[in-house]
Amino acid sequence: MGNTERSQMAEGYYNYFATNGISFSAGLIKKPDHKRIPQRIINLMQEDEIDISLQKPKPISKKLISNCDQIYVLCDWHQLPNFISSLNKVIYEPVEDPYKMNLIKTREIRNEIKKIVKSII
Predict the structure, then answer these.
(1) pLDDT of 109-120, one tens digit each?
(2) Which end of the chain is flanked by fewer CB atoms within 10 Å, N or C?
């Protein structure tokens, strides 16, 4: 829910693999330590030669999603505000939150996100 891990990985993978279009991530920034992407997430993405070090957490808003063709949600649907969960262009792909998980589990989650992103493209 903090827009610093799952969605940042998805944004990085989409923008790396896609030949057209662009992806950006946004979320409900609720945790005080979610002002930047954790170095461990940046390092994990660098294992796949993807640099997300310049990406920044962004808060979700009605204005932000108004220009989106599709919205992929990686958190549980019940965590979403109504202005998102009620849209027809939302696709749910819930992925476990790697927040404060060990490196092995976080790597598994990263690989799951990579698989989801590749299936979209």
Answers:
(1) 999 999 999 999
(2) C
Helix (H) or strand (E) holding 119: helix 103-120
> Using an 8 Å Cβ cutoff, are 42 and 12 in contact?
no
- Which residues lie across from 105 on neighbouring strands? none
- Tell me if residue 43 falls in helix, strand or coil: helix
φ, ψ of residue 92 to 5 degrees: the values are -95, 125
| H-assigned helices in 18-102 | 39-46, 62-66, 82-85
- How many Cβ atoms are within 10 Å of 10's Cβ, its own excluded? 22
pTM: 0.91
Tokens of residue 42, six digits: 């940046």
Phi, psi of 70 (to 5 degrees): -140, 155
CA–CA distances in Å: residue 102 to residues 96, 97, 99, 107: 13, 12, 9, 9
